[in-house]
Amino acid sequence: MCSLLRSSWRISPLVGVLHQQVTGRVRITLYFYPVIEENYLQFFTASIVKWKPVLQREAYKQIVIESLRFLVLNKRVKVYAFVIMPNHIHLIWQIMPEHHLKNVQRDFLKFTGQQILKDLRTHHTFEYKGLEVNLKDRKHQVWQRNPLTVDLYNKEMIEQKLDYIHHNPVQGKWSLVEDYCDYPFSSASFYEENDSQFDFLTHYMAYFGH
Questions:
Q1: Is 133 found in the same domain as 47?
Q2: Which domain holds residue 7?
Q3: What is this structure's pTM?
């Protein structure tokens, strides 16, 4: 059975095993927990509540970019790739030692969300109302809960996600540009044209010592 589990799920040796006597036999219950290895590069996706195209405004894309730059300058993460789409973002990043994914992720999404909501509330009330969630602890929210994090265990996985990120603007319904290198809110030009405008980026080959 364990061989069918995804490699990001593991059995804790200390908790999760319960013995019960059932009709003369021992029933063993195993609890499985998702384990994220923070020393790996990680593919991260966060989406806007109700898939609203909030990030179509350049000012809000800049909030995301400057937040990533802040995290890098404060040595909380390394960012290897990104794309900011109208209603979601994809990243490849790495959490630095002494920091934890859940804390970095929380602070990043909280700050960017608060800044975007502040501007929407003042200048774009209709869109602001579209982000209403009426939860116990908040009335409006930018990011959907439970963003996706996937460990990238090897070079092949990293390159597959890198390609996916950079081609996102020209895929499917989007067609935001004809050439993916021309999309100004991704790391494609950093890799394809040695563009240095995103000075917080690290080339993924540096992870392998190149």
A1: yes
A2: 2-34
A3: 0.81
DSSP secondary structure letter of residue 59: H
Distances (CA, A) of 116 to 3, 97, 191: 44, 29, 29
Per-position pLDDT tens, the chain of length 210: 333 333 333 333 333 333 344 444 545 444 444 455 557 999 999 999 999 999 999 999 999 999 999 999 999 999 999 999 999 999 999 999 999 999 999 999 999 999 999 999 999 999 999 999 988 888 999 999 999 999 999 999 999 999 999 999 999 889 999 999 999 999 999 999 999 999 999 999 999 997
Q: Quick one: tokens of 124?
A: 């774009």
Same domain (yes/no): 15, 73: no
Q: Look at residue 6 and give its three-state secondary structure.
A: coil
Largest CA distance in the chain: 69
Sheet containing strand 77-84, strands side by side = 77-84, 88-95, 41-47, 148-152
Query: What's the count of helices (H) and strands (E) in the chain, helices before strands?
Result: 5, 10
Residues 51 and 6 in one domain: no
Query: In the chain, how many domains are there?
Result: 2
Residue type at position 152 = L
| Domain co-membership, 139 together with 190 | yes
